[in-house]
Amino acid sequence: MARMVIAGNWKMNGLTETLAEAEGVMAGLEAAHDNADCVICPPATLVLAMANRARGSRLKVGGQTCHPAESGAHTGDISAEMLADAGASHVILGHSERRADHGESDESVAARVEAALRAGLVPIICVGETLYERDGGHTLDIIAGQLAGSLPDSLNGQDFILAYEPVWAIGTGRTPTLEQIGEVHLAIRERLSQRFGETGQSAPILYGGSMKPGNAGEILGVSEVNGGLIGGASLKAADFLAIYEAAG
Ligand code: 13P
């Protein structure tokens, strides 16, 4: 059985003062159940400060992407080694916003996953179909293609996390039906198990897209859903903790 993971993706939100929300999460975790790992991925400017404050707490900190290279002439980019040096333990890779806004292809995501493993970070690798692809009946093919292209063989034997995020459910308030979520998660589990054996059986598969305190319980109860990747509702400690509680 994969361990539950509740991860927050702050995206391009958060100033120094917003660290108070992360501190609220740390405090809440003290009194909460211990059935899930809890991660927040703030913007790069806050990784170091959040990791410093999270030391000794149950909260883990992650980046939102990384460059494949360790260092070099790549203005504006940060490497996996830099995230690890700042205190991150995780990194989101291949988020649909990175794929759309920055042209991250499956091949480039796979290279970033290699970089994360090289630096000792746990990659949170995102896949998901657009509404056009779902309406065309291509969801499972699209997911299979993204898995084949974005997951390097070197994941075998490593800790990694998969996140299924239907593009049309992100930030829209719309979510797939529980049956639709279950169908995709089962297909992902089968692919991971075929390709990576035991590693693929124990990798958590998170659902992401308009997850909120009000729907977290039922989504987290779906077979092969091992947690959530939460955007908007991760920005407020109370909402994020309520989702965490639903994973108990
Ligand atoms: P929302 O929870 O805001 O829909 O975002 C989901 C997401 O993209 C997390 O990575």
The number of domains is 1
Content of β-strand:
15-25%
Level-1 CATH class name: Alpha Beta
The strand count comes to: 8
Q: What quaternary form is this?
A: single chain
What is the fold named in CATH at topology level?
Answer: TIM Barrel
Question: What characteristic shape results from the CA principal axes?
Answer: globular
Question: Could you tell me which ligands this complex binds, including any ions or cofactors?
Answer: 1,3-dihydroxyacetonephosphate
Distance between the termini: 15 Å
Structure overview:
By secondary structure, the chain is α/β, with parallel strands linked by helices. The chain has one domain (20-217): TIM Barrel, CATH 3.20.20.70. It is built from eleven helices and eight strands. It has helices spanning 19-31, 44-54, 80-86, 96-101, 106-118, 131-135, 139-150, 178-196, 198-202, 213-220, 237-246; strands at 4-9, 36-41, 59-63, 90-93, 122-127, 161-164, 205-208, 227-230. The longest helix has 19 residues, at 178-196. The two termini are 15 Å apart. Bound molecules: 1,3-dihydroxyacetonephosphate. Residues 9, 95, 165, 170-171, 208-211, 229-233 line the site of 1,3-dihydroxyacetonephosphate.
